[in-house]
Design brief:
By secondary structure, the chain is α/β, with parallel strands linked by helices. Helix content is 37%, strand content 21%. The chain has 10 helices and 16 strands. A 7-stranded mixed beta sheet has the order 6-5-4-7-10-15-16, with helices on both faces. Strands 11-8-9-14 form a 4-stranded mixed beta sheet, covered by helices on one side. Strand 12 and strand 13 form a beta hairpin. Helix 2 packs antiparallel against helix 5, helix 3 packs antiparallel against helix 4 and helix 5 packs across helix 6. The mean pLDDT is 98. Bound molecules: 5-S-methyl-1-O-phosphono-5-thio-D-ribulose (MRU).
Length: 313
């Protein structure tokens, strides 16, 4: 089941805010609907956001909108994942060469799956039979069109016949690990355990984790940006000599800038104040809710891409 698909000139997005309880698709009729799904995390994960944005441009094209103006609006939906900007600019470039936005979006849809499968095969080379792999957030099929990056590596290793088990950090505040990564691994029949975020160091200290593989929202000079909590996992991995890999397609690379110049999204305090519908802190509590961490290059063992495993930049 794909994260999103195009049908009858509308974009259908699997609503990830409702997973795992409900499997429903949200129908986007306008580019504003697509912006809404990105802002509310109905669609999330760097590659999925990029492809959704490209289809947003296609919806705007069909409605006869000014694409330059729409591009700016779509780019403002979320600031950290570079795939959003990359995808919108790629559609504008295709338009300037006489192609349609829809054709370019459909091409990006197909490319995403192929890229992840190639990336997965490279990544599987570092995965050994019997490994237990810790992952943070969801860099799976749900974060892409299909197959996934970090979870794509796990899928590829399993397809090669390796016995792998997975440990998922729950990934507070919105629990992409618990709700999405565990769900994906269970659907595949891959052995999976859920831990609270703060247990990751403990498991590494006990020698229960062989490798960490996470995704990225941006890879730039000096490191990678990924879901909040990734930095603490990387620091613990360094301390306990556990290899820490980032799996990311080249569309997530932004080589021209320093990772410290990437805007880190600050999200709604309610994500922290509530656990689901249950309020967990007193009225009047002040909150900081940065959505992403910066992982410095010296904590990264390698970056798994569709071009092979690269050194951090
Ligand atoms: O806030 P999210 O859920 O969009 O954050 C997603 C992540 O941090 C992923 O790890 C990253 O986008 C890579 S997805 C292949």
């Amino acid at each position: 089941m794909k994260t999103l698909y195009w049908k009858d000139n509308h974009l259908f997005i699997r609503d990830q805010t409702k997973l795992p309880a409900e499997v429903t698709y949200f129908e986007c009729e306008t580019y504003q609907d697509v912006i809404h799904t990105i802002k509310t995390l109905m669609v999330r994960g760097a590659p999925a956001i990029g492809v959704a944005a490209a289809f947003g441009m296609a919806l705007a094209e069909l409605a006869g909108e000014d694409l330059e103006k729409v591009a700016e609006e779509i780019k403002a939906a979320r600031p950290t994942a570079v795939n959003l900007f990359w995808a919108v600019d790629r559609v504008l470039d295709a338009k300037s060469k006489g192609k349609s936005a829809l054709d370019e979006a459909l091409l990006m849809f197909d490319e995403d799956i192929q890229t992840n499968k190639t990336l997965g095969k490279y990544g599987a080379q570092v995965v050994e039979d019997g490994d237990t792999i810790l992952t943070h957030c969801n860099a799976g099929a749900l974060a892409c069109v299909d197959y996934g990056t970090a979870l794509g590596v796990i899928r590829a290793a399993v397809e090669e016949g390796k016995n792998i088990s997975v440990v998922c950090d729950e990934t507070r505040p919105v629990c992409q690990g618990a709700r999405l990564s565990v769900f994906e691994m269970q659907e595949e029949g891959i052995p999976v355990k859920l831990i609270v975020d703060s247990a990751a160091g403990r498991l590494m200290q006990e020698g229960k984790i062989d490798k960490v593989i996470v995704g990225a929202d941006r890879v730039a000079r000096g490191g990678a940006a990924n879901k909040i909590g990734s930095l603490m996992v990387a620091l613990a991995a360094k301390r306990f000599n556990v290899p820490f890999y980032v799996a990311a397609p080249k569309s997530t690379f932004d080589e021209g800038i320093s990772i410290y110049d990437v805007e880190i999204e600050e999200r709604d305090p309610d994500e922290v104040l509530y656990f689901g519908d249950c309020r967990v802190a007193p009225e009047g509590t002040e909150v900081e809710n940065p959505a992403f961490d910066i992982i410095p290059s010296d904590l990264i063992t390698g970056i798994i891409t569709e071009d092979g495993i690269l050194d951090p930049i």
